[in-house]
Amino acid sequence: METPELAPALERQFETSVVTERENSGGGFFTTMRVAIDVPTVVSPSVLGYATQARISGLEHGLGFVLFIKGGRLHMLEGFAWGSESTHHLDLSALEFEIYNELVQSRI
After folding, report:
1. N or C: which end of the chain has fewer CB within 10 A?
2. What's the pLDDT score for residue 11?
3. What's the pTM?
């Protein structure tokens, strides 16, 4: 994680979050979530990510991720396919994946 100091607070938010919308755009996905109002907010940049990747069966180059924070709360997770591969064939609710961290500049 690029901001390990935020990990405990973001994990607490994630544990109480509810997915409100999920979209497979064909080039990746957008998952919008709502965090319980009684969970403390975080002071952070509005966008986190850039170094977190996942190996996905069915995608040669895997996915990259960006996490959006709105008002100090988790708001949306975007996953994007590296290269021009389509994600339309993936069942996003049942994906098996392996997370790893790598500098984006060294990809493809």
Report:
1. C
2. 94
3. 0.83
